[in-house]
Structures are given as C-alpha cells and as structure tokens.
Amino acid sequence: MTAAVEHKSTATLWRNADFMRLWIGQTISELGSKVSSLALPLIAITTVQASDLEVSTIAGTMSLPAIAISLYLGVLVDRVRRRPLLIIAHAGRAVTLLTVPLAIWQGWLTLAHLYAVAFFMGVFNLLFQVANSSYLPTLIDRDQLADGNGKLAATGAAASAGGNTVGGALIAAIGTAWGIVADVATYVVAGLLLGLIRKPEERPRRSHTPRSHVHRDIVEGFRLVTGHPVLRALTCAAVVANLSYAMVTSVFTLFMYKTLGLTAAAMGIVFAVGNAGMLLGSVLPKRTTRRIGIGPTAVLATALAAVGESGLALSDGRWALGVLAVCHGLYWVSVPLFNVPLATLYQGACPQHLQGRLNATVRFVALGIFPIGAVLAGVLSEAYSSRLALVTAGVIAWGAPLLLALSSARRVRTADDLTLVASPEIDQEDRKVTP
Fold first, then answer.
1. DSSP 3-state percent helix, strand, coil across the chain (nearest 5)
2. How many C-alpha atoms does 158 have within 13 Å on its Cβ side?
3. What confidence tens digit (pLDDT) does each residue in 313-353 have?
4. Domains of the chain by range and CATH?
C-alpha cells in the first residue's frame, strides 16, 4: 500500500507542469548562486584588497536581514499570495548582483558597495526562502511534500556541484565579473518560469488583518517555536550548528586561498565535492527517516556535520586538497539529511495560515547567529589564524547532536508525532476574519 502511494506521488510530480517550472527555475538559480558564492569573496580579496576580518564581515552582513526583518517577512508571507513574492525575490537578487560587475568595469567598486550588495542579497534570499517553504504546500498535495522537498534538494545539489565546477573554471579563465553576470541571468530565467505557473493561488484568509495586529502575529510565531519542546530543541540545535557553519564559511575561502595556496580551479573542486555530498545526502532522508525516524535522523545528520567541520582544519601539505574535499563533502551530506525531513515535518504539521510565521521565526533564531559566527571567525583569523577559527568551529559543532540526543526531539518518528496549532485565543479570533 505504501509503495503504491509513493509511486503515485512521484509520477504525479513528474507530470505536474507547475511543479516542474518551480523545480527547474530553482535548480537554475542555485546553479548561478554557487558561482557568486565563489566569486564575491575573491572579488573582495583581489579587487578591493579586503582583510580577513572584512571578508568575513561581508559574509556576516548577508545574514543581518535574518535579524532585522525576517519576522515581518513571515507576517507578510501569511497575508499575501506567495508566488508574486518569489518573483520579486528573483528580480531583486538579479538587480542587486548586476551592480557588482558594472562597478568593476567602471572602476568604482568599493568595500562599502560589497557590504550593501551582501545586505540586499540577504534580504531577497530571506524573502525567497520564507515564501518558498510556505508556497510548496499550496502547489502540491500533502502526501507529495516529502517527494517534492527531496526533488528540490537533490537537483539543487546537482546544480550546486556543477555551479562550483563551472564557476571555478570560469573565474580562472575570464575573471570574476562574468561569473556574476551568469548568476544574474539565472535569476531572470527562474523568475520567468515562476510567472508561467498556472495553478491559481488562493488569497490567505488573513490578508486583510489590520496593521495593528502585526506584532501580535509575530508573537504567535514565537509561541509556535518556543512553546513546543520539539521545536525548541530543533531550533536550538540549528543555532549551534549555524554558529559553527558561519565561522567555517566566513574563513574557508581565506584558508584555502591564503593558508593553503589553492587556485580558484582547485577551490571549485572542493566546493563541487561538497555539493556532490549534498546530492548523495538528498537521497538518504526518505530511507533513513522510514528506518529510524525523523528525530534520530536529525541527531545523525548533526553528528556527521560535526565530523566534517572538525576535519577541515586538519588539511595541510600534499593531502590538503583531498582532506578538504572529503570533509566538505561529509558536511554537505548532512545538510539535506537534516533539512529535508524537517521541512516536510513543518509543512505537514503546520496550518497554512501559520506557515510564513513558523518559517520566519525559525530562520530569525537560527540564522540570526550567523553575523556573530562570522565576526568571531574573523577576529580569530585576524588575531591568530584561519586554522584556529576552523578548529573552534569544529568544537562548537558537536553541541548540536548533543542537544538533540538529550531532548524529546530524538523520539519524533513521523509528522503525526508533531501537531502545530495556533493558541486558542488567536485561532478563534482568526476565524472571524474573512478574506
């Protein structure tokens, strides 16, 4: 019976033209974004001669919107249709990135410009992430969510692997500016594909809630996360894991470029192996969660991440490239193994009118730690070395699996074990609001 249902859902998604448009567009945009993730730090280092601390601060700046506006974006996503927000996010990212190569060619690129680009990219990235997580349950059926999330994660990983490989070769051959231009084009194509989706999206029932209720809605999002022991544990683990990863990502390019002396092409190989690991990890959640459950899978995923991050600082000498690639790959195996089951869990357990606030609140708490991790890594790298920053990140990473192993989250096996509802007084008032 189960096999029949899975087969039906998979076949339906393959024949679902609207899902395919979303899927292809997201894959293309992720392909381009990996080019920029390699190009922007190199531009900061080579074009404006940024220091270690400045490069890490640029990375941290991209996470500032998670602190500043994510909660308001969650309310917005719950009040309006989500597909137009996705198109706006793609357009905003394209325009923002396009200013970088234009500035390079005109000779007026500055460090302040890169900070501004990082901040606005963070704004539009956050808008896309919150709206996209909330939009998928309106596009496909509930029993297809696991399949849909898995497909998005798998092809995103494949695109990422290709993007890093092509990006490294492109940067080595013709420079960083054209890599950014390629990323701009992918966002344009993704936005056009979203515009072709035909399935109508219903107006959220709370779209006419008075403005004075915005902060009440934000509080409701916090109640969802802090009031449920499983969500608390998962969010706290995500905070610890993201603190560690923020430290790694802030100094990783510096470590490879300055400490190990790797070329852009070699760095592209490391990132490509990491994304190949993500592709491998994306096929594991369905089997792993069925075998041991969602909670134990989260413990396993965070432990794998800690092993991978702990090993990065050990790379040196002739084996440096191989050690970096293996550890980076192991870390990225863990990412979809953690994210895909949890995304499906939240989408299946949370009512539609709370999806935006749930996603935004989790991101506010979990991603808000990124600037702290970025600055901490920059300070350690500037004062001592980027290797010490990586060692510190590896030690911190072990806190995430420990938190989950000691919490009730480890006992969650399926979405049926987690039911998220609004508090009674809020839900009763919501029902009085007519669209």
1. 85, 0, 15
2. 12
3. 888 877 888 889 999 999 989 988 988 888 877 777 777 77
4. 17-198+213-430 (1.20.1250.20)
